[in-house]
Amino acid sequence: MLVERMTKNLSTETIFSRKYGLLGKQEAHENAKRIEELCFASADEHFKREPDGDGSSAVQLYAKETSKMMLEVLKKGPRTTAELEAPVADTPPVPADAPLVPADTVLDISGGKRAFIEADEAKELLSPLTKPGNSYKRICFSNRSFGIGAANVAGPILEAVKNQLTEVDISDFVAGRPEDEALDVMRIFSKALEGSVLRYLNISDNALGEKGVRAFSELLKSQESLEELYVMNDGISEEAAKALSELIPATDKLKVLQFHNNMTGDEGAMYIAEMVKCSPNVESFRCSATRIGSDGGVALSEALGRCTRLKKLDIRDNLFGVDAGLALSETLPKLPDLVELYLSDLNLENEGTKAIANALKQSAPQLEVLEMAGNEISARAAPDLAECLMAMQSLKKLTLAENELKDDGAVIIAKSLEDGHTDLKELDVSTNMLQRVGARCFARAVANKPAFVQLNINGNFISDEGIDEVKEILKAGKKSLDVLGSLDENEPDGEPDDEEEEEDAEDNEDELDSKLQSVKVEQDD
């Protein structure tokens, strides 16, 4: 888990102890604790903004920030005995140049291994919330499984501070508990937090289902100011989705709404669509891996037309099909602020892909991330995609993996990326039945991009000679071979399904380039 990767990264207390000696052991402990809490909070926020990543960038941020703060403390050295014994005010002023001592606003007990906690441990862990005058506004109880005894301890404590809380993360907090006990724990927390004015609520990873959602009734019904709501991996079925739409009184202030990895289906999507319609200020919407088919996809696509401030849309890994893709293409022009679009594994096929590409060409030149992997896209849709991509000069990441572009489609797509696109960092065209010609074209397209870091052409049918040529192209450009991803799944002797000679594809390159130039002229006109 992310927490474990961070805690293994370095031991701040050990380093401080070596510097401070026995006299400063207590101070070392205090400084180490402050640094780790502050940097974890910062890295955790970074991780939440990149939920699709593996946590590597968050760990790097954590390491960077902790190292910086450790150096600051080590340079100052330990305090004197007099300083250590001096009385400290309950709420000392925070100097502008002292980032290590801000007011405590976050109580996060999620660190370490997942564990059951009972009454005694809960009392100890939550004791900071019982101190008079505390200023905690954010709590994270994730990764700790509360039994009924621990919940009975937590309930009164939370009720006493609920009016000051603005962010509550109780994701994954009943793991391994019998259903009846888990539901009782949820009811206790719900009752305790009822009436709090939250901007952020995360109840993910609790296998809620309808029973769990309704166990949170009192909490949910009292929330009218939510800006972020996370209900991921919660068994949100049709009935659970209906319960959510009934219980939450207002979603007009929502900016982030995430339903990833549920069993929603078409029927449940109808209720989510109703919530979306009432959420015009949503900037980030995620409903990936939720088993939504064509009917639900159409309803959801139409509802998203109300979210005109949307910046990030992630609906990948569903069963939308062509009809839902066409409905989505009608909605996209209504989303002028869209920056990230994740449409992989939606069964869009060429027809849906072309419609979406044509919509994006006009409405989303500012797009930075476009993912359309696993949609059965062939060379027939390549010209439309190429026009779309030429308009997207801010693009940083393009994923077209697991399609059927082959060399013909690759030549067209690659040509559209050659000019401009100075911000492009990642290109993934793995598993597209590419051969020598297509691979060379993509290498040429990215070889001189100043910001480029990753070319993935794995899982194709590129000959050994073709791989050598790709490497030579990259070496001759501004970027080194470091940008070339793994080729462990490339099949040098493989052939596309409908066998096509590489020479034929290469002969067609000039013709395809001519078509693309014609497209570009039309666009400039």
Question: TL;DR of this structure?
Answer:
The chain has about 525 residues and is an alpha/beta fold.
CATH topology group of the domain at 104-250:
Leucine-rich repeat, LRR (right-handed beta-alpha superhelix)
Name of the top-level CATH class of the domain at 104-250: Alpha Beta
Strand order of the largest sheet: 1-3-5-6-7-8-9-10-11-12-13-14-15
Task: Give the count of helical stretches.
Answer: 21
Largest sheet: 13 strands, parallel
Return the CATH architecture of the domain at 104-250: Alpha-Beta Horseshoe
Furnish the topology, listing elements before pairings.
Layout: H1 2-7, H2 12-20, H3 25-49, H4 56-76, H5 81-85, E1 106-108, E2 115-117, H6 119-125, E3 138-140, E4 144-146, H7 148-161, E5 167-169, H8 179-193, E6 200-202, H9 209-215, H10 217-221, E7 228-230, H11 238-247, E8 256-258, H12 265-277, E9 284-286, H13 294-304, E10 312-314, H14 321-331, E11 340-342, H15 349-363, E12 369-371, H16 382-391, E13 397-399, H17 406-418, E14 426-428, H18 436-446, E15 454-456, H19 464-476, H20 502-507, H21 509-524
Helix pairs in contact: 2-3, 3-4, 6-7, 7-8, 9-11, 11-12, 12-13, 13-14, 14-15, 15-16, 16-17, 16-21, 17-18, 17-21, 18-19
Task: State the main characteristics.
525 residues; alpha/beta; Serum Albumin, Chain A, Domain 1; Leucine-rich repeat, LRR (right-handed beta-alpha superhelix); 13-stranded parallel β-sheet; two-stranded parallel sheet; 21 helices; 15 strands; disordered N terminus; WPP domain-containing protein; GTPase activator activity; cytoplasm; WPP_sf; nucleus
